[in-house]
Amino acid sequence: MPPADQQVRSRPVRVLALLAALATVPLWAPPDNVTTSDGTFMVAAAVPPGVPVVRVGALVVVVLLAALTLWRGRRVVALFAVPAVALSWVWVRTEGGGSYTVAMVGTDAPPAFTSPWFAVSAALTALVVLTWTLAVIGIVGRRRGPSAERP
């Protein structure tokens, strides 16, 4: 396969790897508690044991693999299976990224999409999808091997 074709085929993989690295941003330190402008006090639900360690470890691996993917291309993409499994476990254990309880001070709870945990939940869900997508691309690419890419 000509180098130009390889570059075109690896460009979407690099974009997905960059998106995966960016999706880690809200997950490094999810909020513990928040008081809204109208006085609603929201507290994060208790995190199951082991989740913070696995989450941070998986985020480090995602960022490192994304950097390697940007540098080396498709060669390391299959390794995204490791953080995909870990982040899937975190997603299941935290009920989709995080939940919260509300201690109301005379007001109703805000809608879910305005809570500070919505970004955490959306980022974790996106990251699980992105890491599994990259892992599948890498595994399928390795199985097909270099002979399948030649005309």
Describe it.
The protein is mostly helical. 60% of the residues lie in helices and 7% in strands. The chain has four helices and three strands, in the order αββααβα. The chain has a three-stranded antiparallel β-sheet, with no helix packed on it. α1 runs antiparallel to α4 and α2 (51-72) runs antiparallel to α3 (81-93). It is elongated and about 55 Å long. The N and C termini lie close together (8 Å). Residues 4-8 have low confidence and may be disordered.
Give a brief description.
This protein has about 150 residues and is mainly α.
Mean pLDDT: 78
The amount of beta strand, in percent, is 5-15%
Distance between the termini: 8 Å
**Quaternary arrangement of the chains shown?**
single chain
Q: How would a textbook summarize the main sheet?
A: 3 strands, antiparallel
Radius of gyration: 19 Å
Can you list the strand order of the major beta sheet?
Answer: 1-2-3
Count of DSSP-assigned helices = 4
Based on CA inertia axes, which overall geometry fits? elongated
Instruction: Give the low-pLDDT segments.
Output: 4-8
Secondary-structure element series: HEEHHEH
Q: Provide the helix percentage.
A: 55-70%
Q: How many runs of DSSP E, i.e. beta strands?
A: 3
Pairing-aware structural class of the strands and helices? mainly alpha
